[in-house]
Specification:
Strand order of the largest sheet: 8-7-9-10-12-11-17
Helix content: 25-40%
Radius of gyration: 29 Å
Structural class: alpha/beta
Largest sheet: 7 strands, mixed
Strand content: 5-15%
Number of helices: 25
C-alpha cells in the first residue's frame, strides 16, 4: 500500500490514542525487563519492540469468535486484544497464575480460551510450525460452515502471525498450498524485520514473503509499512474483510524494524552494530506521536497516555514479582485430558454376525463414526475419490459422505498430522491417514511440537483430538519404504497414545475409543493382518462387533492361557507381544501344548503394565516379542521394567526377540525372512527359555 495523505486511511482518533497507549505499554514492559534483567532474564523472552504498530493493527481486527496463532514476539497483539501487562508478566516469570500455561512455557507463547476473547490455541515456539495448525483451524472452520454446524451469523477468521524468516520453512509451503487449494478464511501476517537470529534476510532467502506468496495461485497479497500504525490498520482491516467475506486466504507483508534483542539470550549489542540505529529511524512510536499531534491531540493528552501506561506497567511488575510460583507437586498434571471411555461396551460377538477381516472392521468403524458424528471428517493421501485408500481401507466413504468430509490431500504428511491440532481447536474431529508408517517422518515435527505438548503446556485447555491411522509392518516383499515398524520412536514422544490392534474385533472397538478420546491417538494397523492372507493369521478375522462396541485403550488381553498342570510343573512361560507377534507366538506355541500364555498388549501407550506383571508372575519366565529391530526398542525397555519389578519371581532372564538390527527391510522376500522374526525363531527361543 502507499499513501499520500493521512486522510487516505481515516483511522478514528480514539483508535489512534488507544494504539499509542498500548505501544507505550509494550515499550515500557520491554524497558522494565531490560532494567531488571537479572530477574526478568532468568527465563528467555522476546518482545515486540519495533513491531508494535502492525501487531496492534492486527489485534484490533480480531473478534471474540475469531482464532489466532501467534509467534513468540507478539506481546503487542496480546495487549491489543485486552490482555493485561500483569498477565503477560506472570508468564515471563513462570508464575503459578500465568493464564496461558501455569508457568510451563515461555513468555509470548499464549494459549487462551476465555469468554470475550479470540481463541488462541497452544503452539510451539512458532518459527513456521504454527502455519499448519493455523491453516488447520481455517480448514476446520470451512468444514463446519459447509456442514451447517457453526452457530450464529459470525464468519470466523484465523490470524496466523509469522516472522519473514520462518516463511522459508517447508511446512509453511504446505500450509499455503492447502489454504489456496481449499479456499480457507485465513490472514497470514508476515512481520519482516530483516533478521533471523544473527542472519540477515539476504543470507536466508532469495525473496521475501510477499514475492514468495505470488507462487500460490489464489493467495491475495498486500504490502504495508508495518511501522506506520494508520497504514497498518487499514491494511489489516482490508485483509480481515477479505478473509471474512470472500472466505479465501490473504497474506500481509509488513516491513518493521527490530528494536529489541532477538531474545533476551541473544542480545542486540552482540551483533547489530550500526544496524540498530538504522532501524531506530522507523520506530513506530514517535511516528504515531507525530500523527496524533497533526490531528490536534495536545502534548498534555499524549503525556497523560504515556503516564497511564507507565503507571500500569510499574504496578503490574511489582504485583507479578509478588505472585506465587507453581506448586511443584502439580508438575505432572495434564499430560492427557480424561477420556470418557473407561469400560468395554456393546457386543463384541453378536449372535448371527459374520466374521470380518481387520481392514473391513476399520472401514466399518470409520463409517459408523462419520454417520454418527457430523463434526467428523477423514482425509489423507488417496483415501478419497474412487480408490478409497491403497488398501481399500476407506472404500466408498467419499461417495457416501461427499468430498468435503472424505478427501484426498497432497503429499503432505506434515499438514495431515499438524492440521488435526487446528481442527480440534475449532471443534472439528479429524481422522487422518499416513499411507505407510515409513512416510510418517515428515510429520514428526508437527506430532512432537504441536500435538503432543498442547494439553500439558496449555494446562489442559487445548488437548488435541486426533486419530492418525498408520498402516505398519512387513507383509512379504514390501521393501524398505513400505514395511517398517516405528512404534519405539513414537513411544519416546510423551503426550500421544499409541494403539496396535491384532484382530478385527479389537480394531473396531479401539478405533471407536480412539475417536472419542480427547487426546492424539495413533492407530498402528498391520498390513499383514488386514486380510488374514498371511499364513497363521487366520484368527485376525473375527466375528464383527456391533456398531456400539467400544474397547478402552490401555487394556491388554490374554489371547491364550497355559494349562494349570504345566504351570504347576514349572513348565510354562508368557509371551508378551502385539500385532503380528501374536500370530508368530500362536503358531510357535503349538509345539509346546499347554505351556504358553500369550498376552496381547493391544495398546502400547497407555500400557497395561499390571496385566504384564500378573502374566509374568504367573509363570516366572517371559519373552517380549516384537517385529521391530531389537536394539534400543520398546521391547527391550519393557523387558528391563519387567526385570526390575519381577526380579524375585523370575526363574530366568527376561528374553527378547525382534528383527535384526538393520536400517531397512530388504525387498527380496528371502532376505526379508532372514531379518524378521517368524514362528520357527520364536519356537527356538521358547525351547531355550523353558529349558533355562
Amino acid at each position: 500500500m502507499s499513501r499520500d495523505t493521512l486522510e487516505d486511511f481515516k483511522v478514528d482518533v480514539a483508535v489512534l490514542k488507544k494504539a499509542y497507549r498500548l505501544m507505550i505499554t509494550a515499550k515500557t514492559m520491554a524497558d522494565t525487563y531490560e532494567e531488571n534483567k537479572a530477574i526478568c532474564s532468568k527465563y528467555v523472552h522476546s518482545t515486540s519492540r519495533g513491531h508494535e504498530a502492525i501487531q496492534l493493527a492486527a489485534a484490533f481486527q480480531l473478534n471474540a469468535y475469531d482464532y489466532a496463532a501467534l509467534y513468540y514476539r507478539d506481546d503487542s497483539v496480546l495487549l491489543g486484544i485486552g490482555m493485561q501487562p500483569y498477565e503477560l508478566m506472570l508468564q515471563l516469570m513462570a508464575k503459578a497464575d500465568d493464564p496461558f500455561s501455569g508457568g510451563r512455557t515461555y513468555y509470548g507463547h499464549p494459549s487462551l480460551k476465555r469468554e470475550g476473547f479470540p481463541v488462541i490455541p497452544h503452539q510451539s515456539s512458532a518459527t513456521g510450525m504454527q502455519a499448519i495448525p493455523a491453516t488447520g483451524m481455517a480448514h476446520g472452520i470451512a468444514y463446519l460452515e459447509n456442514q451447517g454446524l457453526l452457530n450464529g451469523d459470525e464468519k470466523p477468521v484465523v490470524l496466523c502471525s509469522l516472522g519473514d524468516g520462518s516463511v522459508t520453512e517447508g511446512e509453511v509451503a504446505e500450509a499455503f498450498q492447502m489454504a489456496v487449494l481449499k479456499g480457507l478464511p485465513i490472514v497470514y501476517l508476515v512481520q519482516d524485520n530483516d533478521w533471523g537470529i544473527s542472519a540477515t534476510g539476504k543470507e536466508m532467502r532469495a525473496m521475501d514473503a510477499y514475492e514468495y506468496a505470488a507462487g500460490f495461485k489464489g493467495m491475495e497479497r498486500l504490502r504495508v509499512n508495518g511501522s506506520d500504525f494508520a497504514e497498518s490498520f487499514e491494511g489489516m482491516r482490508i485483509a480481515f474483510e477479505y478473509a471474512r467475506e470472500v472466505r479465501k486466504p490473504i497474506l500481509v507483508h509488513a516491513k518493521v524494524p527490530l528494536l529489541g534483542h532477538h531474545t533476551s539470550g541473544v542480545r542486540r549489542e552482540w551483533y547489530r552494530g550500526d544496524n540498530l540505529q538504522e532501524h531506530a529511524v522507523n520506530d513506530p512510536i514517535p511516528r504515531l506521536k507525530q500523527t496524533l499531534l497533526s490531528l490536534d491531540v495536545t502534548e498534555n493528552e499524549i503525556e497523560a497516555l504515556e503516564q497511564e501506561a507507565q503507571r500500569i506497567v510499574a504496578a503490574d511488575y511489582q504485583k507479578a514479582l509478588d505472585a506465587p510460583v507453581p506448586d511443584p507437586s502439580t508438575f505432572d498434571q495434564h499430560e492427557f485430558a480424561p477420556t470418557p471411555v473407561t469400560e468395554e461396551k456393546g457386543e463384541r460377538a453378536p449372535a448371527g454376525a459374520e466374521k470380518a477381516i481387520m481392514v473391513d472392521a476399520a472401514l466399518h468403524a470409520v463409517d459408523d463414526i462419520l454417520r454418527t458424528y457430523p463434526e467428523a471428517l477423514f482425509y489423507g493421501q488417496d483415501v478419497g475419490g474412487e480408490l478409497g485408500g491403497v488398501f481399500r481401507e476407506a472404500a466408498l466413504l467419499a461417495k457416501k459422505y461427499g468430498d468435503t468430509r472424505v478427501f484426498n490431500t497432497p503429499i503432505q504428511e506434515a499438514y495431515i498430522v499438524g492440521s488435526t491440532a487446528g481442527m480440534s481447536a475449532v471443534g472439528a474431529k479429524a481422522i487422518v491417514e499416513i499411507q505407510f508408517a515409513d512416510y510418517i517422518w515428515p510429520g514428526m515435527n508437527q506430532l512432537v511440537e504441536e500435538l503432543s505438548k498442547s494439553c500439558y503446556l496449555s494446562m489442559g485447555k487445548f488437548p488435541v483430538q486426533s486419530v492418525i491411522r498408520v498402516p505398519i509392518g512387513a507383509y512379504g516383499g514390501g521393501g524398505p519404504y513400505h514395511s517398517g515398524s516405528i512404534e519405539s520412536t513414537l513411544l519416546t514422544i510423551r503426550g500421544i497414545k499409541v494403539v496396535y490392534p491384532s484382530n478385527a474385533a479389537d480394531m473396531k472397538g479401539l478405533m471407536k475409543a480412539a475417536f472419542l478420546d480427547p487426546n492424539p491417538v495413533i492407530m498402528l494397523e498391520h498390513k499383514g493382518l488386514y486380510w488374514s492372507k498371511v499364513a497363521g493369521t487366520e484368527d485376525a478375522k473375527t466375528i464383527e462387533p456391533d456398531e456400539n462396541y467400544i474397547l478402552p485403550l490401555g487394556k491388554a488381553n490374554v489371547v491364550q492361557y497355559a494349562s494349570g498342570d504345566q504351570i504347576k510343573m514349572g513348565n510354562s512361560m508368557t509371551i508378551i507381544t502385539y500385532g503380528m507377534g501374536v500370530y508368530w507366538a500362536k503358531t510357535a506355541s503349538k509345539q509346546f501344548p499347554g505351556s504358553i500364555e500369550i498376552l496381547d498388549l493391544r495398546t502400547l501407550n497407555p500400557l497395561d503394565f499390571d496385566a504384564v506383571l500378573a502374566s509374568v508372575r504367573r509363570h516366572g519366565k517371559a519373552l517380549v516379542l516384537t517385529e521391530e529391530p531389537l536394539m534400543n526398542s520398546f521391547a527391550e525397555s519393557l523387558a528391563g521394567r519387567i526385570s526390575k519389578e519381577c526380579f524375585q519371581q523370575l526363574d530366568a532372564p527376561v528374553y527378547t526377540l525382534g528383527a535384526a538390527n538393520l536400517p531397512a527391510i530388504p525387498l527380496n522376500v528371502e532376505l526379508e525372512k532372514m531379518m524378521l522374526p517368524n514362528p520357527d525363531k520364536v519356537a527356538a527361543t521358547i525351547e531355550d527359555l523353558l529349558n533355562y
